[in-house]
C-alpha cells in the first residue's frame, strides 16, 4: 500500500478542511489544600475537548466520538506520555516558584500550548507558562530557548533550560507529534468540518443602560462553520459602526456557534430610520436581512 507523505496529508487535509485548525492544551497546577485536584489538563481540537486528565487519575481519558474505539485508543496512547510529562513539570514549576518567592497560601501555575495548521500550509507552535494568572515564561520552539516575561522568572528560565531531557520532549511534541495528531484528528472529522448549519437570527430589544435609547441585540446562533459576518444596516444601505458593540463568537454544546451584535438607537433615530441585522455565512445562498425599526415592526 502506498503511504502518504506528510506533505500529501497536509495538502489533502487543507483541501478538505479550509481554515486554521489547532490542537491545543491547557494545564493548571494548584497548591495543596484547596480540595481540588492538584493538576488538571484538557486537550482541545479547535473548540472541542478531546481529552481530560487530573492528578487523581492514572491516565487521561478520551472525550470525543470522532474516532472509533481502536483509533481513539491509539491516539490517546500517543498523547498520554506528553500529558503525564506536562503534569510533572508544571507541578514542579509551581513548587519551585512558591519556594523561590517564599510564598504561602494558594497559588497556581498554568501552561498553554499547542500547534496550528493554516490554509497556506504554514505551521505555528507555541508554549507559555503563567504564575497566578500572569505571564511568566514562554518557549521559543525554533531556538529551544525560554524567555522570561518578568525579571522574577529568570530563575525558572535557567532551571528549564538546564533540563535537557524535558526540553527535547517538549521540542519533539511541538515540532512533530502535535502536528501529526492534529492531522490525524482532521482526517476523522471531515464530515463534521464539511457540514454547514444555517444560522437562526433573533432580535432582542431592551432599554439602553447608559442612554435614553434602545439596545437591539442581534442574536445569531446555530451556525457552522465558525466564520460569520454580522452587520447592522441603516435604511437598507448604510453599514453602521458607531453605536455597535460585538461579542465574541462562542461555541454551543452541539458544535455550532453563536454571536451577539448590539446596536444602540436613540429615540430620535428610531423615528427617522429603519434598521436591519445582516448576516453573511457559508450556509446561506444570499445574505440574510432581519429588519427592526418603527416602519417594520413587528420584526421578522
From TrEMBL:
Cleaved signal peptide residues: 1-18
Domain Ig-like: from-to ranges: 199-291
Xref: Pfam families: C1-set, MHC_I
GO biological process, one term: immune response
Matches recorded under InterPro entries: Ig-like_dom, Ig-like_dom_sf, Ig-like_fold, Ig/MHC_CS, Ig_C1-set, MHC_class-I_related, MHC_I-like_Ag-recog, MHC_I-like_Ag-recog_sf
Gene3D superfamilies attached to this UniProt entry: Immunoglobulins, MHC class I-like antigen recognition-like
Keywords from the UniProt entry: Glycoprotein, Immunoglobulin domain, Signal
A GO-annotated cellular component: external side of plasma membrane
Top-rank lineage group of the source organism: Eukaryota
Family: Belongs to the MHC class I family.
Designated name of the protein: Major histocompatibility complex class I-related gene protein-like
Organism per entry: Acipenser oxyrinchus oxyrinchus
